[in-house]
Amino acid sequence: MILFTFVLxxxxxxxxxxxxxxxxxxxxxxxxxxxxxxxxLYHQTERALYAFCVSLTRDHELSKEIMQETxxxxxxxxxxxxxxxxxxxxxxxxxxxxxxxxYKKRSRVQLEDTSLLGNDKRFSYVTDLEDRMVLEQxxxxxxxxxxxxxxxYAVSGMKHKEISESLGMKLSTVLSKYxxxxxxxRTYLEEGRS
Length: 194
Description:
mainly alpha; 194 residues; globular; 9 helices
């Protein structure tokens, strides 16, 4: 699994061209009805937004739904975007608000039974049952912020500074939570191997 490989590896520096820069003019073009701009935005941000959604939901299908709704909200509200140098932060805020709304709706409608992992739809993108159980257990040991930061770094390839700007946290806080989360994951995975 990518996440486990990432956690157990030493810090490997990313290549220079790996930075995630979102062209803020895309929002103006989307607001003016340019659908090609929405396609461009989607291709520039899909991995980062997916990693962020998975860090919130821990559910592949729900993450895809939140992503779709986020891009729809962007389509309808792009004309309201004010360029401030943090387009991902704006997108993450939209996604987080959609998640919280969905979470409130679902918690009122049904109580989730987590005792039957075999029938659990969370982590449906992981096909091996043993990997699903390990992934669920590993992610449960992290705080929500640690999970967000590690998944954004590991899955979407964002740099710590970009994560800091996108989540509206100080760089020192992001680095601290990242290293604390990695330490938790390494400890958990190493204990599992002994």
